[in-house]
Amino acid sequence: MNRVEPIRSEKKIRDLKNYLLGAGNIRNYALVAFGLNTALRISDILNLTWKDIFDFYEDSFKSHVYIVEKKTGKEKKFLLNNNAKLALKKLKNESKAVLGSDFVFKSREGHNKPITRFMAIKIIKNSCTSVGIKERIGCHSLRKTFGYHSWKKGVPIPILMELFNHSNQSITKLYLGISQDDIDDVYRLVEL
Fold first, then answer.
1. Which of 15, 56, 125, 144 suits a disulfide with 6, CB 3.0-4.6 Å?
2. pLDDT tens digits for 123-135?
């Protein structure tokens, strides 16, 4: 498996989200926006149902989501930030009657099936190519993008390690996709 990169440019992230909104495919927009804002693996994103993220009794999105990670079997609790909720709200408003058991990112083929990992990769890669993102992109790029921008905003690596459920910091450091430009920025910042 080839290593994929995060999307390092915030402008390119905005371009990507605007492109998907402009294309009128709210499901694809919501998939990318949700992935960028939750740092979940694509397998966990695709397994989400509406009852996982929406409280039908209160008629509102949950503040926190609880899942069991498919890859690790570990429990994970994460906050739905405003951008994730906004994307999900757009998707819910566009969808016809949503049931709790419905998959959030539903395939157009078959009855209540999530899109496949292959389709998710296709959506992400094609959209990134359309807006000129040249890095090696895959589904994990969304997760890595969250980590990269968190790190750039000063979130300590041990916190990111916990967020990603990594067993050691070296894995987390690989995720961050630190480039020579990032290293150069340190030299520009620290002029003694």
1. 144
2. 999 999 999 999 9
